[in-house]
């Protein structure tokens, strides 16, 4: 069953983010920073939502949707971030279910768009996102770190 994450899920969410960030060259796991960021979302639901699935009482996958405004389309938009399924749970369609749930949530909120960024070399993830309706575009991802 897919549900909203709660503050009680913070240790499991940090563990999942640790696994995700170990796969990415640009990030390093830091449970204190991840916990602080997760709390911002959990304590301010208008800023976004974190969806999880639980098996045997344990959080297995997660995905976050962060709220923003789409000024081109004049409406609410979301950024889909931090999709991670524990290695031992992969290959069961869980990621597809979780993303579909997040997209349904965005539709109920009357969002006009959901965007995401993924590593250009992660062909498996790109194929999944395209299968679920995401389309590549010409925008170039960029970052400016402020801390």
Largest sheet: 5 strands, mixed
What radius of gyration results from the CA coordinates?
15 Å
Q: Which word captures the global form?
A: globular
Oligomer: single chain
Structural class by helix and strand composition: alpha+beta
Total strands: the figure is 5
CATH class membership: Alpha Beta
- CATH topology title: Aminopeptidase
Domain count: the total is: 1
- Counting DSSP H or I runs of 4 or more residues, the number of helices is 4
N-C termini distance: 37 Å
Reported CATH architecture? 3-Layer(aba) Sandwich
Strand order of the largest sheet: 1-2-3-4-5
Q: Summarize the amount of helix as a percent range.
A: 25-40%
Average pLDDT: 90
Instruction: List SSEs in N-to-C order.
Output: EHHEEEHEH
The named CATH superfamily: Gcn5-related N-acetyltransferase (GNAT)
- Which percent range describes the beta-strand content? 25-35%
Topology:
Elements: E1 2-4, H1 10-23, H2 31-43, E2 48-55, E3 58-70, E4 75-85, H3 94-108, E5 113-116, H4 123-131
Parallel strand pairs: 4-5
Antiparallel strand pairs: 1-2, 2-3, 3-4
Q: Key terms for this structure?
A:
alpha+beta; Aminopeptidase
Give a quick rundown of the structure:
By secondary structure, the chain is α+β, with helices and mostly antiparallel strands.
What report would you give on this structure?
There is one protein chain. The chain is of the alpha+beta class. It has a single domain, classed as 3-Layer(aba) Sandwich (Aminopeptidase). Helix content is 35%, strand content 27%. The chain has a five-stranded mixed beta sheet with strand order 1-2-3-4-5, with helices on both faces. Helix 1 packs across helix 2.
